[in-house]
Every structure is written in structure tokens, then in C-alpha cells.
Amino acid sequence: MSNYPRDEFDKVPETSSRQGVHRERLIPSRSSGLGLIITVGVLALVLGVAAYFVLPRLGIGTDDGDRAPAADSSASVESPEPQASEPGQSTEPTPSATAAPSAEPAPTPSPTPSPTPAAADRSQPVVVLNGSGIGGLGASVSARLGADGWTTAQVANWGGQPLQGSIIFYGTEDQLPNAQELSQLLGIPTVVQSPDFTLVTVVPGPGFQ
Asked: TM spans, by residue (predicted)?
């Protein structure tokens, strides 16, 4: 307690935190601490965003394993450089050793000549048997054969079964050329081999001309 008389400044309670109307508070305000926290948070957020977008472009923090395939792919597309040929070495492509030879046309086989038919032997005699029933036909046929150079051994009538047409018989294979020649001469197409005839036998039948 002082000995001075009390005035208007002595009305402030002694337990109050107020130290005078003309002095600033010594205790810091709570609002200043909250602003510091917000400022630090904003700075941290800005730094995080900058690190996320800027550092990958600068190549910082990327994995070496991710860049290895890119290097391999770039190396795989590189075309090999042509090797310089040695002096005196030809650069022309070597023909394949297994190249097929040029195909030559196969020779055309010549047609097999048909065997020449044996010539008729007019020295062999011929028998004429009339099978038409017309008298004198046997002699007429014999005359036609003689005019062509043939020799008639016998002229008679046919004694076998009645015939439907004219026939020329021959006994052996060597007589076939003579029978074919007489077939063309007399116009008789039927030529028959039979062991019953020893000589070529002409039998003019019905309708013989």
C-alpha cells in the first residue's frame, strides 16, 4: 500500500492481468500461432505439388529398370550396317547350288510303224464251191480269179448246210493273206479259219454279185 491518495487508476483490481492501459500485452495472442501453422501447411503443400510434377521431368527419382526396355527397343530397331566387302571379292549374289537345271523338252516318241501285211501268194491254188444254187456261178467266179492271176484247183457245188451269204475259208495262218486278198477282189467280207479246209476255198452264196 502507498501513502498517495487513490485516483481513477487505482480502481483496477489487483488480481487482474491488465497491467496498464498504456502498455501492450506481454502474452502473445493465440491467433498468431494458428496463422503460423496454416502458413507452414501451405508451404508444405506447394513443395509437394512441385516435387510431383517437376522432379519426374528432370529425371530425378525414376527407376533404372523402367528405362531399360526403352533402351533395348531403340537398339533392336537399329539396322545393321553393311559390311564392307574385301578387295577383289564379288558383291554379286551367288546362285544357289541347288538350282534346278533347265528343263529340256522330252523327246517325242515316234509312232510305232504298223507291221506290213504279208503279200498274197498267187501260186497257191484256190477251190471254188458254188453255194448259191445258181448254175454256172462257180465257173464265173473261177474266170474272175484267173483274170487276176490266181489258179483254180477245183470248181464244184457246196455240199454243206445252206448258207445265208458268201464265205471264204482258209486252213492255216500262212493262208490268211491270200484269203484277205480274195475278199477284197470278190467283195466277200466274211473270212473264216477252219481246219477242215486245206486250201483257200471261195464259196459264193445267195446274193453274190
From this structure: 33-55
pTM > 0.70: yes or no: no
Helix (H, G, I), strand (E, B) or coil at 52: helix
Q: How many residues in total does the chain contain?
A: 209
d(CA 186, CA 64): 115
Q: How far apart are CA 16 and CA 9, in angstroms?
A: 13
Tell me the per-residue pLDDT of 169-189, one tens digit each, with 9 for 90 and over.
Answer: 999 999 999 999 999 999 999
CATH architecture of 126-203: 2-Layer Sandwich (3.30)
Burial of 30 (0-12, 13-18, 19+ CB in 10 A): exposed
The span from the CA of 64 to the CA of 118, in Å, is 104
